[in-house]
Amino acid sequence: MAVYQWRVFEKDGTITTVDVEPSDMPIIKIPGDPAELEELGFDLLNICKVADQFCGGLKITEAQMISVGGYHDIYELRTDSGDSKVSLIARPFLAPLLDEWGQENCSGMLLSEVAVMTLLRHTSTIPVPRCLSHSVSDGGNPWILLEKCSGVASECMRSAVSKEAKIRMLHEFADISVQISRVPVPSSAPIGSLQSFDTTMGSVQVGPLYAAGLVGGAGPFPTYQSYISYLVKRAEEIMGGETCKELQVIVALAERLAPSEDDRMWRPTLMHGDLDPKNILSSNGHIDAILDWEFHAVVPAFLALDYPKWLVNEGITDRRFAPMCLDGMTCTRSWVETEEDAAEYRRIFAQSVSALDPDYMRIVEAGSNARRLVDWLLQWSQYEPYHTGFAAWRAYIEGSEGV
């Protein structure tokens, strides 16, 4: 029997519902069978021993995988003490990723995430999980141990969620968005991810950029132009040397789409990078935690500030341009809301965020097409339907904006 239902809208407006079943992943007893633990590919027993230090004298007695990820699996570690049960979250890097990226890059991304979560907990009231421990020791999978937060993921996608709860989430998300934009980073920071944060000195260092789809870290990039040039070169590599006329005009297009030399537009600004509903835990619209900060970035404000990701209907997520699958029948994208409801919720978010920061929406609007261009480049594909969608979008913005 399903625990709950997700509801999404297809390109043609039809509704697709997905029944989410209870987890059927096996429970691993701790200390358990050494052979079974060996098959996991990482040292779960050692993580549990570290976790014991944060359980108030209790011991971890079982672990269960609760989510399968592209970069790391997520395990819930539990004590067994009746009503006083304690649960923590462990995220070890996957062995295949460790083989592809190498120890240094995987460790760098984990330390970057630890740095940004520490910075956020010191400088804001954004609900970020507390990092209890982490390891980047040579010869082992890097891992991070976090407190378990309350709330459920992707609540706004659930069929049973009320409109009132969605609106409540938007107001809270507006406050979080403004707080993220005000996290202090150096005014001379390049485009990249946090490399370190010194809690004593309050100093922040920005290093290589970690983003979904990038193999290891890239950069840091001293300018917007150098960042775009890198993304174009990466897209050309994805094409395997094939000529793609769309890529030949992007650098010049990016220049035209960038806003004026307004300091507020270009101020180095923190962004989450992966704020899908799955990374927001909430309870009846109240946001309990923002998860998964590994793909955060420091970028110019016009690339950082945006509407909630699940309400955006522009660029690659615009129903007119979203790439089709190779079968030509189905779309590679689906949407959390109808076009009409998404527009209403965007207006509510805009009003809420503007009450907190009058400049916020001015920056969102000024950087709209530049952000959408970066979206296309970060998700670049060698398949023809992708190029068709991008070409249609580019023709539209060049006509509507006169760029």
Can you put this structure into words, describing what you see?
Pfam families: APH (PF01636). With 403 residues, this protein is α+β, with helices and mostly antiparallel strands. It folds into 2 domains: 4-147, 2-Layer Sandwich (Phosphorylase Kinase, domain 1), CATH 3.30.200; 161-401, Aminoglycoside phosphotransferase (APH), C-terminal lobe (Aminoglycoside 3'-phosphotransferase, Chain: A, domain 2, Alpha-Beta Complex), CATH 3.90.1200.10. It contains 13 helices and 15 strands. The protein has helices at 34-38, 44-51, 95-101, 103-123, 163-181, 224-238, 250-257, 263-266, 301-304, 339-356, 360-366, 368-378, 384-401; strands at 4-9, 15-20, 27-29, 60-67, 74-79, 87-92, 131-135, 143-147, 152-153, 193-198, 203-207, 268-271, 280-283, 286-290, 297-300. Strands 3-4-5-6-8-7 form a 6-stranded antiparallel β-sheet, sandwiched between helices. It has a 3-stranded antiparallel β-sheet with strand order 9-13-14, with helices on one face. A hairpin with a 6-residue loop joins strand 4 and strand 5. Helix 3 crosses helix 4 (103-123) and helix 5 packs across helix 10 (339-356). 35% of the residues are buried.
Secondary structure layout plus pairing:
Layout: E1 4-9, E2 15-20, E3 27-29, H1 34-38, H2 44-51, E4 60-67, E5 74-79, E6 87-92, H3 95-101, H4 103-123, E7 131-135, E8 143-147, E9 152-153, H5 163-181, E10 193-198, E11 203-207, H6 224-238, H7 250-257, H8 263-266, E12 268-271, E13 280-283, E14 286-290, E15 297-300, H9 301-304, H10 339-356, H11 360-366, H12 368-378, H13 384-401
Antiparallel strand pairs: 1-2, 3-4, 4-5, 5-6, 6-8, 7-8, 9-13, 10-11, 12-15, 13-14
Helix pairs in contact: 3-4, 5-10, 6-7
Protein name: Aminoglycoside phosphotransferase domain-containing protein
InterPro entries: AGP_Transferase, Aminoglycoside_PTrfase, Kinase-like_dom_sf
Domain Aminoglycoside phosphotransferase: 111-295
